[in-house]
Amino acid sequence: MALWATSCSSSEKLFLASSAATRRRMGSRRRDLVHVGMTDQAEMETISIAYKEGDRERPKWADETPFSRLVEALISFKPFYSLLKLGARQVLISTAERNNIPWREMTKEILESDVYKELNTIQNTSLQYPDYYLSPFHAYDEGNLSWLAAAEAEVATMSMTRRAIPYAPSNEEATQEMRGNWVQAIKQHHMKHSGNVTIQNIVDIGCSVGVSTRFLADEFPSAKVTGLDLSPYFLSVAQYKEKKRPPRKNPIRWIHAAGENTGLPSKSFDLVSFSYVFHECPERAIIALVNEAFRLLRPGGTLAITDQAPKSKILQELSPALFTLMKSTEPFLNEYYLTDLEERLREAGFVNMKTLLTDPRHMTMTATVPHQHV
């Protein structure tokens, strides 16, 4: 989860101007497209035609430059880091409040609920956490291993969505654009490369409190969906929220495990999804996650990764103050931006790699396990 500019930059204004005609052409079709699905490459390109790429492979602030090293040094200075952490948190909260997202009310509702009862049913007490996962994340000293982080995760995701798509008429439409384009990229890739393999089993690795997992379950109602995460607190919230919904034909299964070593059977899934996970991981963890995904997928299965887009024009033009704030809450952000993700997928054995900007700041990368894989 990342932090975004509080107002429209010049690049955002350029994006808004260039995308207005596209949105007018699509009109009411946009909502239909995100629910019904698309089979034509031109349709997908139409949706993303106005999402601008920058001139570089990645932002300057992510390169190994003297300025980047200076920012890292400032972040490592504890008194300054404490101020940055508070500032980063306030950016998300203020964005939520400006967009009628009830941050405090939603957080309070979770913290004052019976969510705590879910922990004993879901926690794997023998699980050994990877060292990187014990780092502070997102302005929480305990990282993802706290009830406060779990209670605020969904509302923070809503705030992040609004920062990514500030021109949307409503919070719901912002979510539909971000999640809708993501899932359509998955559907289109799978239809083209799977060899008519039906998506019957899905695992959402790094599922957090289940926002992406529930979206996948809604979009693929006949599939059996598993949400897997390292945080038992996040999973407790996910399970608690799912219990409040009408029962599904195929209930979501929640698993407390490491994404690098899930313990799930090999070749047992048609789709493995990572939503906003890799930017929180060092490169060694990214490689391990990709290798585990390859093991889990059946021949013809699809890997889907959605995350920050290094080529996003808006991210490349973030002001120093904003990218310093962002880096202060994401300890492995530089490693993510410096990782050649398509090459890591290729090394693991994946083919048919495709990377597409699916909103102004995020990309969706899809790939396939070869059909002759044994």
Automatic annotation (TrEMBL):
Residues 202-301 form the Methyltransferase domain. InterPro entries: Methyltransf_25, Methyltransf_Superfamily, SAM-dependent_MTases_sf. It comes from the Eukaryota. It holds the Pfam family Methyltransf_25. One of its GO terms (molecular function) is methyltransferase activity. PANTHER family: METHYLTRANSFERASE (PTHR42912), METHYLTRANSFERASE DOMAIN-CONTAINING PROTEIN (PTHR42912:SF80). This is Methyltransferase domain-containing protein. It comes from Gossypium klotzschianum.
